[in-house]
Design brief:
This protein is an alpha/beta fold. The protein has 2 domains: about 240 residues, Type I PLP-dependent aspartate aminotransferase-like (Major domain) (Aspartate Aminotransferase, domain 2), CATH 3.40.640.10; about 90 residues, Aspartate Aminotransferase, domain 1 (Alpha-Beta Complex), CATH 3.90.1150. Helix 1 crosses helix 10, helix 2 packs parallel to helix 10 and helix 8 packs across helix 11. The two termini are about 30 Å apart. It is about 40% helix and about 15% strand. A 7-stranded mixed β-sheet has the order 1-7-6-5-4-2-3, sandwiched between helices.
Length: about 350
C-alpha cells in the first residue's frame, strides 16, 4: 500500500515503534487477567511518578468510554454537566454522555473553545431546586477542540469556582500531552496542581495503538469505579496490552517527544500556509491543530491531495491535524498543493 499521510486527525497516525515493541515484549507467557498483572502495576506506577502517589488509575478502551465513565463516576442522572458548545462530549460522542449518565449537558458558546468563570455564572443556579437539573460537573478539554490551550491559572480559576459550588472539574485530556508541551509545563502542573478532579488521559492520539487512562485525583470519586467500569463493558481481560502501551509512552518522556514533534509540525504548517492565496488562519496554533478558512469550491480538490475534515461547512472552515509521524516533507508537499489549487 502506498503511504499517504493525511491531516485529518492524529488518530489517523500509526503506532509508535517503541509502543509496538512494548506490546510484543508483553506477549510472553501467561499473566493474571483483568489488570492483576505486573505490566498494569508498572503502568500505574509510571502515572504515579508523574502525577502523584495519591491517585487512582484505570485503563479503558477509548476516549468516549473514558469521558463517559469519568462523568458517570461523579454524577447522578439528575445532574448537569457544563461544557463548551464545541466540546467532544457534546459534538462527537453520538449522545453517549447523555445516554449512559442520564445527565443534561449545558453547553456554552465560546470563541476559542475555552471556558471562563464568567461563562459559568449564568448556569450556577437552581441548586437544591427539584425542578432543575443540578449543576455538578464542569468539563473542559486540554487542548481544546479548536486547538487552543488552557494555562494552569485559567484551569485553577475554573476549578475554584466549581469547588466553591460543590462541583467537580473534569478534563478531557485526549491531547493533554500536546497541551503540556505547548505550555512548557509538566503533566502534573496542568492537571492536579491546577485543581482538576478527574482526568481522561489520552494515548491513542499520541502514538498508542489504542487505549485511554482514567485518573482520579480525589480517591473518594473512584471508590466504586471498578464495578462501574465492568458494568460499562470497559474492563479489558488482557489488560496488559493496554497498560504496557502507557508504560512505554511515559517512560523516557516519549509522550513529550511525540507531542513536541506534532506541535512543531503544526507550527510549520501554519507558517507554510501563511503565504498561500485565499487561506486565513482562524485560531492560534498552540498545540497540533491548524484551523483555517479556504474557498469551499477548492476543498474537495485539496482533500484529494491529502485528506482533512471540514470543521464548519457554513463558514468553509477546515481543520488540519499533525501527528507524531508527520514529516516536514508531508507539510511542504501539502502546502505546495494548496498553493497550486487555491491560487488557481
Amino acid at each position: 500500500m502506498t503511504e499517504r499521510r493525511s491531516f485529518a486527525s492524529d488518530n489517523s497516525a500509526g503506532v509508535h515503534p517503541a509502543v509496538l515493541r512494548a506490546i510484543i515484549d508483553a506477549n510472553q507467557g501467561h499473566v493474571p487477567a483483568y489488570g492483576d498483572d505486573p505490566y498494569t502495576a508498572r503502568a500505574v506506577a509510571s502515572f504515579q511518578s508523574l502525577l502523584g502517589e495519591d491517585i487512582d488509575v484505570f485503563f479503558v478502551y477509548g476516549g468516549t468510554g473514558a469521558n463517559v465513565l469519568a462523568i458517570r463516576a461523579v454524577t447522578e442522572s439528575y445532574h448537569a454537566v457544563l461544557c463548551p458548545e464545541s466540546a467532544h462530549i457534546n459534538v462527537d460522542e453520538c449522545g453517549a454522555p447523555e445516554k449512559f449518565t442520564g445527565c443534561k449537558l449545558l453547553t456554552i458558546p465560546t470563541a476559542d473553545g475555552k471556558l471562563r468563570p464568567d461563562d459559568l455564572l449564568p448556569h450556577l443556579r437552581g441548586f437544591g431546586v427539584e425542578h432543575h437539573a443540578q449543576p455538578r460537573v464542569v468539563s473542559i478539554t486540554q487542548a481544546t477542540e479548536l486547538g487552543t490551550v488552557y494555562r494552569p491559572a485559567e484551569i485553577r480559576a475554573l476549578a475554584d469556582l466549581a469547588h466553591a459550588h460543590g462541583m467537580v472539574l473534569h478534563m478531557d485530556g485526549a491531547r493533554i500531552a500536546n497541551a503540556a508541551v505547548a505550555l512548557g509545563s509538566s503533566l502534573k502542573a496542568t492537571t492536579v496542581d491546577a485543581g482538576v478532579d478527574v482526568l481522561s488521559f489520552g494515548g491513542t492520539k499520541n502514538g498508542l495503538m489504542g487505549g485511554e487512562a482514567l485518573i482520579f485525583f480525589r480517591r473518594e470519586h473512584a471508590e466504586n469505579f471498578r464495578f462501574l467500569r465492568k458494568q460499562s463493558m470497559q474492563l479489558a481481560s488482557k489488560m496488559r496490552f493496554i497498560a504496557v502501551q502507557f508504560d512505554a509512552l511515559l517512560r523516557d518522556d516519549l509522550w513529550r517527544q511525540n507531542a513536541e514533534h506534532a506541535n512543531r509540525m503544526a507550527r510549520l504548517l501554519r507558517d507554510a500556509m501563511a503565504g498561500v492565496p485565499n487561506v486565513r488562519i482562524t485560531q492560534p496554533v498552540e498545540a497540533n491543530a491548524v484551523f483555517a478558512t479556504i474557498p469551499s469550491q477548492h476543498i474537495a480538490a485539496l482533500q484529494a491531495e491529502s485528506f482533512f475534515y471540514v470543521w464548519n461547512e457554513q463558514t468553509s472552515e477546515v481543520r488540519w491535524m499533525t501527528a507524531f509521524d508527520t514529516t516536514e516533507e508531508d507539510v511542504h508537499a501539502f502546502a505546495a498543493a494548496a498553493r497550486r489549487i487555491l491560487g488557481s
